[in-house]
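Job type: complex structure
Entries:
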Amino acid sequence: MLSTGEEVLHGDITDTNAAWLSRRCFEEGFALNRRVTTGDALDDIAIELVRCSQVSDVVIVNGGLGPTTDDLTTEAMAMAMDVDVELNSYWLTALKERFEKNGRTMPKSNIKQAMLPEGAELIDNPVGSACGFSAELNGCLMFFTPGVPSEFKQMFEDEILPRLQARYPNTAKREIQRLYSFGVGESTLNDRFEAIDLPEGFELGYRSALPFIEVKVFSPRQHSEISLITEAIKHAIGDNLVGDGKSLLETMGDLLRESSLRLAVAEKFTGGYLTNWLNENADTQNALTQGWVLSESSLVTENDYNPLAAVLAMATAARENAGVEIGLASGNVEAGRVALGLSTAMGDWGIIVKTGRKLTNEDYRCYASTMMLDMLRRYLTGKEMFPEISALATLESLHIPVEIEQ
Amino acid sequence: MLSTGEEVLHGDITDTNAAWLSRRCFEEGFALNRRVTTGDALDDIAIELVRCSQVSDVVIVNGGLGPTTDDLTTEAMAMAMDVDVELNSYWLTALKERFEKNGRTMPKSNIKQAMLPEGAELIDNPVGSACGFSAELNGCLMFFTPGVPSEFKQMFEDEILPRLQARYPNTAKREIQRLYSFGVGESTLNDRFEAIDLPEGFELGYRSALPFIEVKVFSPRQHSEISLITEAIKHAIGDNLVGDGKSLLETMGDLLRESSLRLAVAEKFTGGYLTNWLNENADTQNALTQGWVLSESSLVTENDYNPLAAVLAMATAARENAGVEIGLASGNVEAGRVALGLSTAMGDWGIIVKTGRKLTNEDYRCYASTMMLDMLRRYLTGKEMFPEISALATLESLHIPVEIEQ
């Protein structure tokens, strides 16, 4: 891959296209072996195009196809190929029609976007004004793509990937199953998977997306043993599995929708993190009836201060005041200790945890919020309620079963 | 810069070191002109080192200095230089002492981290087990640094940057003033700055960090006109200036601390975004007494539903129920319209806005939360309360002055 642009080279924006393309190519069996970033200067781009063409079979070039004077990738490729640029009348017409459709006249500067190096093949861009193109240089197939992430991604998926697959039909195509775990480290997971005999062409990958670890099961496409192996991996992850092909938040959204349970949340330590997070997903948002953030816990008297009893009182008060089925609460204790509580019609569960790692305050709020959601997940799916959680040591836990009135 | 590592190359982690180094180098007057990313394979790294050495004066290499078998950067450099690796006894002793200090014996695998290419100069790493080193190849000065971001950053600041400055004393050293704006686009800012005559060596840069634009004023170090020019730029940004060397959140923290005002927040549309955000800063966290997130606004009757009156009722109820000086509220209206309210002892202000851009729901919650904080900033600093805001069209606004009882 060759990324162009001063903003990327000088760190004003992070090159998210690069990370995305790298991941997608790897998933599809076309792992990148080299990535280069250069600025906007015509000569620099042209030289880099030549260098890349000399050492790779395929290069995907990103950026520099816009209408402004500092968009020079097309001209650089013409220079590298030692050809002129020529007007592509098909794209010029397409561009003009798009502007007219919106009641505007095409500005002259956009004509530049219909100029391609002689001999290049146009690649359609249904969502933007910059068409892509492909051309060969020194026997290397080069694809040119726009920098706008949505346009870039669509062009890769719809146009470039099919061409790569047609050109390299024997490249192992792979499927990926994604499993998300919480509360267990990568090395522990690795040990748990050791007994699983992977068939040829299967491979495991890990991606740490704190506080979760994404386990990726790579396999040949439509292999007969995919579901067998995936089930074995899921079994090994055990009750640390928080999402099968989806995140914990999505899992919770599905669980809450299916069970028609409603939530209220009282946050002291987590300060709105959980409430805000729940609002990122339509299903969890619908279930969330009320969220409170309290700078001081006004729900308990400080006289007989017992942190576990206090956080359970908060969770219960949240549940009862909002008139819903589930209450979740986080309370401060002291010196890195956090109390978390779950209140339900079937009983209450409370826990005091302490982090074993150097977490920033922000990361700790994330961990504690995840832990609360995970308590609810365990409750809703009938799992062990007080598991060991990596990065968080449990100092105390309390279960108050519901009192059945006679 | 040369970044090494399969995780970076295949997109499993984002190369934050690259963006950071690019920005720091640019700020110090040593702008990068090329960045390459390669995997973990010995040959690939060695070839890339040679290529980089042929086209650059200085290369900073990052990653691959760890104790494990896939950390091969040192060996690759020795291969590129056609020399052997040799034990650096100073670093071996330093490593052993560190392990002993923690009551541990140094594992054998760490000996590898004391091996450097013959002729290389050791670079100290006070915070990690991987020392850095520098060596010349084809007349190019190459620095080798560990991948751990905190170690990498400290090594650059303390060791590499001083060496670069000593080697290139005539490189223009620059200072940067950072100004943050909200509610105004880059092209509008650019127009406003046109009348300002920048002295030689001054330059303006923009970094879009939505919903803010960071304006960077680059200047020669200790130039006599820095404050004059910076003041002129601040004047041109006008009341869109939300932070002088600090973010809006930090600005609000300072304003709230100085004024000893306390906040309560009632969020319907923004769903906890503002409350969670306020909790990221110690000063704003201290000022925040209570935050509510309501799935339905139980504070107003739906009979006489007037969105502006409703959001002001929410803000007022939040303020009065929590017994504090400031109430902020967000309410849904319909179809992309959001009502925002500020309630104070000096009167209430409400506004209905609509986005002109295609914002994701998450981004819209961010914009609306920023708008609420910006209303409070304008109130506390005596600015115009209903400004034009780019990306948000104001549909309606309402000011209810405090009723003075006779």
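Summary: The first helix of chain A runs from residue 6 to 9. Chain A has a mean pLDDT of 89.
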